[in-house]
Amino acid sequence: MWCGAMPAEEPYATIALIGSAYWFAYFLIILPILGIIETPDKQPETIEEAVELAKKKKISQSPNIDGSSVPAE
Questions:
Q1: What is the pLDDT of residues 17-27, one digit of tens each?
Q2: C-alpha distances in angstroms, 54 versus 1, 10, 17, 72?
């Protein structure tokens, strides 16, 4: 957007051209490839199962096992 407000001379025209090429490449090339490459997690049978799994992960990642409070960082 900044390049569009500048005079139509170098280096602004080149910067705008590169930015436009990246913008369209991102939506037309990179995102579709990313959708093919990424694999989603297995969908849980119920919402309750997902909540219980999240609680277990949160408890297992907790460095504070004895139950005492930990100050915020």
A1: 999 999 999 99
A2: 42, 53, 45, 21
| Number of folded domains that form the chain | 1
Does residue 67 lie in a domain region? no
Structure tokens at 73: 């960082």
Q: In this predicted model, which residue has the larger pLDDT, 33 or 57?
A: 33
Angle at 17 between CA 22 and CA 19, to 5 degrees: 35
pLDDT at 56 over 80: yes
